[in-house]
């Protein structure tokens, strides 16, 4: 029912006609002398509602449901006549019908509606012999209805234009992400093959250097895949995970192999802790948090991985100046705190990956510094998971 397009417009009109039909039936209680006329009005309103719901309006183009408005004005005229020329109820409904039209149709249709709307209002008053003062009320009602309709139409048009602009931006962003991710893989594969060939004949300190380069190229390749996955999260809300049990200390150890050797990163992880996560996604989470701590905070950076009754808790703490209270709630938003050293996507990626695991990400104040905390649900089969 909500939204735009011919189908939504027709369904919204159907709701209006249902309300009008029910009001006509209620009106019988107040005016039993005109029961037959009011039953006809109710039948017309409910018939229009069925037409609005059942007809495949998309076949008739964007402005097809406008005919429902024309029919609605006719029923309004019949309703005014049925009530003996009393327009106290039909006048406001005429404005409401105009407001509905303004949400879905351009100004030229609203202007064309002025003629049938005016006739629907005046003709029943004339037929029932209303005095000139009552007939003159059309000179007040119709300009007000048009003014309200034009204001609503302008606002709706502005919102549609903004939605179209955002849609174009999203299409451009999606194309950029796909291009970037795919274009990174091709040259990276060549670099990886060259490094593997060099590794076979390398000696001395070059063996270690090439091994480090191979690890980093493999990580960049995984990041490119992750970028595509994150685009899918943003567009569909779903990410397929390859979750399996892993020793937590080994996961942390593998991830830290990508950190520069001179970085002061310390760990506090129980060697007996087994966690149920996607290894690649967990590595992305941890590396983003450590990189963020090294870039914006101060060493040492402490990595803790613990378990309590609620699940597993990964904490990466730095010893910097901390983050103001008003910034912490929005740290994990897209482009939230980008600057000269980054674009503000790292923590957003962390939040998306945590959510894909069924967990959460948050920032907690420390003295000194700040702790980025990611929680994971307990592994299947644990007592806390079974509760």
UniProtKB/TrEMBL annotation:
<keyword id="KW-1133">Transmembrane helix</keyword>
<feature type="transmembrane region" description="Helical">
    <location>
        <begin position="108"/>
        <end position="127"/>
    </location>
</feature>
<dbReference type="InterPro" id="IPR036890">
    <property type="entry name" value="HATPase_C_sf"/>
</dbReference>
<feature type="transmembrane region" description="Helical">
    <location>
        <begin position="12"/>
        <end position="29"/>
    </location>
</feature>
<keyword id="KW-0902">Two-component regulatory system</keyword>
<feature type="transmembrane region" description="Helical">
    <location>
        <begin position="133"/>
        <end position="152"/>
    </location>
</feature>
<keyword id="KW-0597">Phosphoprotein</keyword>
<dbReference type="InterPro" id="IPR036097">
    <property type="entry name" value="HisK_dim/P_sf"/>
</dbReference>
<protein>
    <recommendedName>
        <fullName>histidine kinase</fullName>
        <ecNumber>2.7.13.3</ecNumber>
    </recommendedName>
</protein>
<dbReference type="InterPro" id="IPR050736">
    <property type="entry name" value="Sensor_HK_Regulatory"/>
</dbReference>
<dbReference type="GO" id="GO:0000155">
    <property type="term" value="F:phosphorelay sensor kinase activity"/>
</dbReference>
<keyword id="KW-0808">Transferase</keyword>
<keyword id="KW-0472">Membrane</keyword>
<dbReference type="InterPro" id="IPR003594">
    <property type="entry name" value="HATPase_dom"/>
</dbReference>
<dbReference type="InterPro" id="IPR005467">
    <property type="entry name" value="His_kinase_dom"/>
</dbReference>
<dbReference type="Pfam" id="PF00512">
    <property type="entry name" value="HisKA"/>
</dbReference>
<feature type="domain" description="Histidine kinase">
    <location>
        <begin position="179"/>
        <end position="380"/>
    </location>
</feature>
<keyword id="KW-0418">Kinase</keyword>
<dbReference type="GO" id="GO:0005886">
    <property type="term" value="C:plasma membrane"/>
</dbReference>
<dbReference type="Pfam" id="PF02518">
    <property type="entry name" value="HATPase_c"/>
</dbReference>
<dbReference type="InterPro" id="IPR004358">
    <property type="entry name" value="Sig_transdc_His_kin-like_C"/>
</dbReference>
<dbReference type="InterPro" id="IPR003661">
    <property type="entry name" value="HisK_dim/P_dom"/>
</dbReference>
<feature type="transmembrane region" description="Helical">
    <location>
        <begin position="38"/>
        <end position="58"/>
    </location>
</feature>
<keyword id="KW-0812">Transmembrane</keyword>
């Amino acid at each position: 029912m909500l939204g735009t397009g011919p189908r939504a417009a027709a369904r919204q009109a159907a709701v209006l006609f249902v309300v009008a039909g029910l009001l006509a039936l209620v009106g019988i209680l107040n005016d039993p002398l005109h029961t037959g006329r009011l039953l006809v009005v109710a039948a017309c309103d409910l018939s229009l509602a069925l037409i609005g719901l059942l007809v495949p309006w998309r076949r008739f183009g964007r402005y097809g449901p406008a005919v429902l408005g024309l029919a609605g004005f006719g029923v309004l005229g019949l309703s005014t006549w049925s009530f003996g020329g009393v327009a106290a109820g039909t006048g406001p409904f005429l404005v409401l019908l105009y407001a509905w039209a303004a949400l879905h149709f351009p100004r030229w249709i609203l202007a064309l509606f002025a003629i049938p709307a005016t006739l629907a209002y005046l003709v029943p008053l004339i037929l029932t012999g209303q005095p000139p003062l009552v007939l003159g009320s059309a000179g007040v009602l119709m300009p007000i209805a048009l003014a309200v309709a034009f204001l609503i139409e302008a606002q709706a048009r502005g919102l549609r234009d903004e939605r179209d602009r955002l849609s174009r931006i999203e299409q451009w962003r999606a194309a950029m992400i796909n291009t970037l991710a795919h274009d990174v893989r091709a040259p990276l594969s060549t670099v990886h093959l060259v490094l593997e060939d060099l590794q076979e004949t390398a000696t001395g300190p070059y063996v270690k250097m090439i091994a480090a380069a191979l690890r980093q190229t493999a990580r960049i390749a995984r990041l490119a895949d992750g970028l595509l996955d994150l685009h899918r999260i943003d567009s569909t809300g779903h990410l397929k995970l390859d979750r399996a049990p892993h020793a937590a200390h080994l996961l942390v150890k593998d991830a830290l192999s990508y950190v520069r050797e001179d970085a002061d990163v310390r760990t506090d992880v129980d060697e007996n802790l087994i966690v149920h996560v996607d290894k690649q996604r967990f590595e992305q989470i941890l590396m983003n948090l450590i990189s963020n701590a090294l870039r914006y905070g101060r060493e040492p950076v402490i990595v803790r991985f613990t378990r309590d009754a609620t699940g597993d808790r990964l904490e990466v703490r730095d010893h910097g100046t901390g983050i103001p209270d008003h910034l912490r709630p929005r740290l994990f938003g897209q482009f939230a705190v980008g600057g000269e050293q980054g674009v503000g996507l790292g923590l957003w990626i962390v939040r998306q990956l945590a959510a894909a695991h069924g967990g959460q990400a948050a920032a907690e104040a420390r003295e000194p510094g700040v702790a980025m905390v990611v929680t994971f649900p307990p592994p299947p089969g644990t007592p806390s998971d079974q509760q």
